[in-house]
Amino acid sequence: MNQMTLEEWMILWLEDHRPFIKESTYGNYSTIIHNYIIPQLGKKRLWELDEQCLQEFTLYLLSDGSKRHSGGLSEKTVHDVWNVLKESLRKAHRQKKIDSSDFKVSFPSSRTKKNVTVLSDHDFDLLSEYLFRHSDSRNLGILLALYTGMRIGEICALKWENINLEERLIHVQYTLQRIYIKNQNNQNVSYVTMTSPKSLASIRSIPLTMNLAEYLSCYYKRNRICADDYLLTCSSQYIEPRSYENYYKKILKHVGISAIRFHALRHTFATRLIAHGADYKIVSELLGHRSVTTTLHLYVHPQLTQKRRCVELLANSERV
User: Per residue in 242-262, pLDDT tens?
Assistant: First the structure.
């Protein structure tokens, strides 16, 4: 009977898996394994794992698993933990270290719907007007988030050479992020890396509005910027996402808008496009999603006025 512990196996599996995944994925897996799986299940022998202990583990994460505050992890995060565990156990089964990897757990039915925050039309206009009036390289990134839906890591990685001002196109090819892992001495280590975006679909070209393209062009010429400079600094030095999000929060406070995450600008971009009648498939491609389903589920949030307009279609048909 194999006496290997789950901790020993997870560390071995992660390192064997490393050459085949992106650095960012490796960092996410490392965080999941060291923060959630090992502390609760690490001392168990592989042969001791069964559906009961895995079900208890899942419920624990949902109720008390958060490392940042009291309470549990989101259902999405717990699914991510469970997927990493399942993938590693499948390999353990293929290598005959365990008899089966066909473990199934249940998630409590969700009773609440998480509302995603978007900027109101008033706040969108307020923020947009402020950013256009205050010419600053860091403000350009917030404008791009509002008018292109780019992720914060993609904006931090963006260089002027990735912007074709004549054709009014932004070519999204990289994302910048700080990765957190555990080293061989079980110490927390972090580093900044520039990699390809989230998926192949995220490598994309996004058209710019005429107004924004002219604004960027004037800024570029006026400040004598080098093509290989980063957009946010107009120099060879980048700003990492956490620092840039802090700057963004200061702008919101200065303008008088309630604090919302930077990612909400991406939600706002998609929601506004859909509200103006844009095709879902095109919105999905602009956002860099693998499928239209992702766009519909995550980023399309009809407002009450749109719902009223939709219902009014019935009233109009009754008059015919």
Answer: 999 999 999 999 999 999 999
* Listed residue (125, 110, 48) closest to 78, CA to CA: 110
Contacts of residue 116, defined as CB under 8 A and 6 or more positions apart, other chains included, come to 264, 267, 298, 299, 301
- The 3-state secondary structure of the chain reads CCCCEHHHHHHHHHHHHHHHCCHHHHHHHHHHHHHHHHHHHCCCEHHHCCHHHHHHHHHHHHHHCCCCCCCCCCHHHHHHHHHHHHHHHHHHHHCCCCCCCCCCCCCCCCCCCCCCCCCCHHHHHHHHHHHHHCCCHHHHHHHHHHHHCCCHHHHHHCEHHHEECCCCEEEECCEEEEEEEECCCCCEEEEEEEECCCCHHHCEEEECCHHHHHHHHHHHHHCCCCCCCECCCCCCCCCCHHHHHHHHHHHHHHHCCCCCCCHHHHHHHHHHHHHCCCCHHHHHHHHCCCCHHHHHHHCCCCCHHHHHHHHHHHHHHHHC
Q: Is the distance from CB of 108 to CB of 62 less than 8 angstroms?
A: yes
Q: For 288, phi and psi rounded to 5 degrees?
A: 80, 35
Q: What is the pLDDT of residue 22?
A: 87
- Count of Cβ atoms closer than 10 Å to residue 267 Cβ: 20
CA distance to 26, 100, 195, 203, per residue, from 200 (Å)? 17, 33, 12, 6
Distance CA(156)–CA(176), nearest Å, equals: 6
Query: CA torsion sign, 309 to 311 to 317 to 318?
Result: negative
203 φ, ψ to 5°? -80, 105
Model confidence pTM above 0.85: no
> 43 near 5, Cβ under 8 Å?
yes
Q: How many percent of the chain have pLDDT more than 70? A: 91
